[in-house]
Write a structure and sequence with these properties.
Layout lengths: L2 H27 L8 E4 L4 E4 L5 E3 L14 H7 L33 H18 L3 H20 L3 H16 L8 H15 L6 H7 L4 H15 L12 H8 L3 H17 L7 H15 L6 H8 L3 H22 L1
Antiparallel strand pairs: 1-2, 2-3
């Protein structure tokens, strides 16, 4: 066969293939009835002709997400492409983690040799996740914050804030001369107060690995050096938790808040422990609501003495009566 014959046949095949591809392209881009332009309706999953309205395709697959987002923050939060970043992990959750289950992708158990290999991989993976002493410090502290927050029942936003406070303290070299547990505990205490979900020093001390003196000293140092804006704890913020622990009614909670507000107007709260005020208000409100409760029960939940409750609840009742006389 001559070279010219081969070239002519190749040209004919190329021309046929090009014509077929052009036909397919034209068929998908224009309406087969009137030759008008096709428009894709993503809401109905249809491809229709803009001229005659012929539905060319229907039940198309939507490759986009099934959720809607109205701003960038909501979009990042709903996106499932990778885990979200978080300040509660030393690497912000960007590293990998090898699971502890000794099973393969099909759920079958690994052999003894494979289990040993996976254990070695886990060990080296943990070593590579922390590059230097600063990251090891941060990993230990954030684990401590998470442990204490779980024991205290604090929400995720408090843990996130505490992690940010500790990171700031680490960046500004506030750790030398102080323990990791001390700065972590102080960060959690400050974060809880900033979020309006405070815990008393006694509660914090009970779950921490440091004593009360070191906690208060480190807390004052961290707040001063980082210029944290921490308002004095409001007694009302303790009321819902104590009422729930004592299994009292909503009426007691309302009465307690009214007693605290009356005492605030009369200037009784100044210099008093907010936990003691909240406990005394709940005890007084229970008496006013005819619900049986003892000072010992309130004392056990609030972790304060019964003497404090007796002194404070009388002051609260006097403040309320004084306020009522002024209104009359």
């Amino acid at each position: 066969m001559s070279e010219s014959t081969i070239q002519s046949r190749t040209a004919e095949q190329t021309g046929e293939r090009t014509a077929d591809e052009q036909f397919d392209h034209d068929e998908t881009e224009v309406c087969p009835e009137c030759g008008g332009d096709l428009v894709t309706d993503s809401e109905r999953g249809e491809t229709v002709c803009s001229e005659c309205g012929l539905v060319v395709e229907e039940d198309e697959i939507d490759p986009g997400p099934e959720w809607r987002a109205f701003d960038s923050a909501e979009k990042d939060k709903k996106s499932r492409v990778g885990a979200p970043t978080t300040n509660m992990m030393h690497d912000k959750g960007l590293s990998t983690n090898i699971g502890w289950q000794n099973k393969d992708a099909y759920g079958n158990s690994l052999s003894s040799r494979q289990r040993e290999k996976m254990q070695r991989l886990r060990t080296w993976n943990e070593r590579f996740r922390t590059r230097d002493s600063k990251e090891r410090n941060l990993k230990q502290a954030l684990g401590e914050i998470d442990r204490m927050a779980s024991a205290l029942g604090l929400p995720e936003n408090v843990r996130e804030t505490a992690s940010v406070i500790y990171r700031r303290a680490l960046d500004e070299d506030l750790l030398p001369g102080r323990s990791i547990e001390g700065v972590a505990t102080a960060s959690l205490y400050a974060a809880a107060r900033q979020a309006g979900n405070p815990r008393s020093l006694d509660e914090i001390e009970r779950v921490s690995r440091i004593d009360r003196m070191e906690l208060t000293r480190t807390y004052r140092y961290v707040v001063r050096e980082l210029n944290l804006e921490v308002k004095p704890a409001d007694p009302e913020s303790y009321v819902p938790r104590f009422v729930s622990d004592l299994d009292l009614s909503e009426e007691v909670s309302r009465q307690a808040r009214e007693l605290i507000e009356s005492a605030r107007k009369e200037g009784v709260l100044s210099g008093k422990s907010p936990v003691g005020i909240a406990a005394a208000a709940i005890y007084a409100a229970a008496l006013l609501s005819n619900e049986r409760i003892t000072q010992g029960e309130v004392s056990e939940v609030a972790n304060i003495s019964e003497v404090t409750i007796r002194n404070r609840y009388k002051e609260l009742l006097e403040a309320k009566s004084a306020g009522s006389q002024q209104v009359a």
